[in-house]
Amino acid sequence: MSNPLLNDRFAENVGIIEGETMTINGAINKTLLMLLVVVISASYTWFLTLQGYTDKAQMLGYAGAFVALISIIAMYFTRKASAIWAVIYSVAEGFFLGYISILFESFYSGIVAQAVCGTFASMFSMLVLYRTGIIKCTERFRAVFFTAMMSVFVIYLIQFGASFFGRSIPQIFTASPIGIGFSVIVVLIASFGFITDFDFIERSANNMVPKYYEWMGAMGLMTSIVWLYVEILNLLLKLNSRN
Question: Would residue 1 count as lying in a domain?
Answer without folding.
Answer: no
